[in-house]
Amino acid sequence: MKITFFSTQPYDRDFFIKGNAAYGFEYTFFETHLGPHIVQAVEPTDAICVFVNDKVTAAVIEVLAQKGVKVIALRCAGFNNVDIEAAKAHQISVCRVPAYSPEAVAEHALAMILTLNRKTHKAYNRVREQNFSLNGLLGFTLKGKTVGVIGTGHIGAAFCTIMAGMGCRVIAYDVQINPQLTKSGITYLPLEQVLEQADIISLHCPLTPQTHHLINASTLQTMKKGVMLINTSRGGLIDTHAVIEALKSQKLGYLGIDVYEQEEQIFFKDLSENIIADDTLQRLMAFPNVLVTAHQAFFTKEALEEITHITLTNIDALLHHKNFTNQTALLV
Ligand code: NAD
Questions:
Q1: Average pLDDT rounded to a whole number, residues 174-189
Q2: From CA 212, how far away is CA 239, in angstroms rounded?
């Protein structure tokens, strides 16, 4: 059985080749994204394996069906980039990795908060140049601050627990309440109240038509002056232009983003020798109180092992008609 992978980096190939010992699949790896530009060139294959920025549109799925694809396997949790209805219409199964290491992402959100707050990235460079001054490095104590969490699924719940452990007051909004979190002292409030009360806001809901540009000019207006905003979920949750205006007016005091609306042409690539044409990203990175990481929140050894294991188990079960036990992983 053949699996064709898209958007692969050396580490993806290493983990999937190692994980294949138990399955014996035949692999083809593409470094490029999946999209209309490449789909015609794909050789017949039983399954495709895609990541966050592959564009698995209805038109792409139609060609994949002609190539004999029976399974679309996402090696990530979010699935906003796959046309689920089109897959269903072509009787192609779609699976994902609903939870591999929620703590990996939650811990990265904390890393972003601490970096923005305590400016360790600046301190590191300063002392290497023998500048031991503290001017400009003033932070704030996290204990006692109010942290607002939007989306309390696997990652949001892990993040709530971490922030409660830091001594913060944690308030949350989700369309579904997690009673375990309520028991452990996390308070659910309407979205408007979370945005109004929080000193730090962290986004952990999926990108859907309802959550697209959840953070926009009018929701930014309702927040505290100087609030810190962290997004490790999906770039489309934030209206980037509105956020730039809020940074300029100092309404937004800090911004930490691991995801960006237009990231697919930029993230996961070494562009250090290139001229970047995206003026919006360049403007964002010019602010001293903005931290951008390139979709690395998931990137731990434990997470990659789990992603590999779950993805191959999913594909194996679907191609060999085995019992599919991981129901939340199956989208079609
Ligand atoms: P999850 O499905 O476990 O949780 C998502 C939560 O969001 C659920 O509790 C759901 O009820 C809630 N939700 C849905 N619609 C909402 C809305 N309109 N308002 C508020 N809450 C809403 O997902 P997860 O594993 O916690 O992952 C969350 C997101 O993180 C994923 O969708 C993905 O986009 C992103 N992610 C990013 C990385 C990274 O490396 N940066 C890695 C993994 C996942």
A1: 97
A2: 8
Q: Using CA positions, which residue lies closest to atom 20 of ligand 1? A: 174
DSSP per-residue letters across 260-309: -TTGGGTTTS--TTS----HHHHHHHHSTTEEE--S-TT-SHHHHHHHHH
pLDDT in tens, 108-121: 999 999 999 999 99
User: DSSP H helical segments within 67-119, as ranges?
Assistant: 84-89, 102-118
Q: Among 108, 154, 169, 263, which one carries the catalytic annotation?
A: 263
Neighbouring-strand partners of residue 82? 56
**Which of 74, 149, 150, 155 is the best mutation target for the ligand 1 pocket, counting ligand atoms within 8 Å of the beta carbon and taking the most?**
155
Q: What is the CATH number of the domain that holds 67?
A: 3.40.50.720
183 & 325 share domain = no
Phi, psi at 324, each rounded to 5°: -95, 100
φ, ψ of residue 299 in degrees (nearest 5): -85, 75
3-state secondary structure of 68: coil
Q: How far apart are CA 149 and CA 131, in angstroms?
A: 37
Q: Catalytic: 192?
A: no
Number of domains in the chain: 2
Q: Is 263 a catalytic residue?
A: yes
pLDDT at position 68 is 98
Q: How far apart are alpha carbons 151 and 232 in whole angstroms?
A: 12
In this model, does residue 324 exceed pLDDT 90? no
Asked whether residue 327 carries a pLDDT value surpassing 90, the answer given is: no
Same domain membership, residue 123 and residue 72:
no
Name the residue type at position 331.
L
Q: Give distance in angstroms: CA of 98 to centre of ligand 1.
A: 10
* CA gap 241, 102 in Å, rounded: 29
Residue range(s) defining the domain that contains residue 125: 102-292
- 247: pLDDT strictly greater than 90: yes
